């Protein structure tokens, strides 16, 4: 069952407060802030999956904050969530930007702010999700927190486990047509420092596309294998940088993060993995958001709340 957000949830009418002064001055409490959920995590940890779990439960809309997924095209290479996976949830800033243009953090802040306001006008919950922490920082920093209450969910996976998953995911992306997708986008004189061409999987194939038409099969296979290895290595390096940035944001910005450890999910397969996801990530994440929306969750500063399983969160929620 999807929970709609009644108006009193985010804009409750506050009682007036009379203070005995000489003039019996009427003081009013400031209006409550609108609420925003932010889902963080390294590439491949399941952020998009959690955002859909939340959106289908809390009448939410998703704002994409992945700096490569904002661009049109290369859906496989940038690992965009598919139409089927979206489950009908509205997504903003996903595949909307000209792939040849640059889209900066300040551009994202401006566009995301407009999307956020439109979502709130529809009395839906904005869920910002993506691995580009510089975009999230640009949005949430400065005056944002004076207007909005934020709930930060951090989906985390132990790096050795994530490295293995990332490697397998690259192989699956190849099976889904990534090579043809990037080949169709290939230009010999392209600038790999601009637009979507910065995406992992595009520059790594440059040498292969240049050589494949005139080299022998053995050389072609070797160059192709080298490109795949580079994609896997660079993706793992990206994941490490993203985790480092999350720690920095927590320590220097004072963001209070609810850490959802999904490591055991990635160690399982099939139905067991789905059950573990529900127990370790989706269930606890929804419990945290429920407490946040209904003012049972403190908006404090700093630190990490380790959310271990659904049972402990539900017990706390009924406290």
Automatic annotation (TrEMBL):
It catalyses: dimethylallyl diphosphate + ADP = N(6)-(dimethylallyl)adenosine 5'-diphosphate + diphosphate; dimethylallyl diphosphate + ATP = N(6)-(dimethylallyl)adenosine 5'-triphosphate + diphosphate. GO terms for molecular function: AMP dimethylallyltransferase activity; ATP binding; ATP/ADP dimethylallyltransferase activity; tRNA dimethylallyltransferase activity. It comes from the Eukaryota. GO terms for cellular component: mitochondrion. Keywords: ATP-binding, Cytokinin biosynthesis, Nucleotide-binding, Transferase, Transit peptide. Signal peptide: none annotated. This is adenylate dimethylallyltransferase (ADP/ATP-dependent). It comes from Sesamum alatum. The lineage of its organism: Eukaryota, Viridiplantae, Streptophyta, Embryophyta, Tracheophyta.
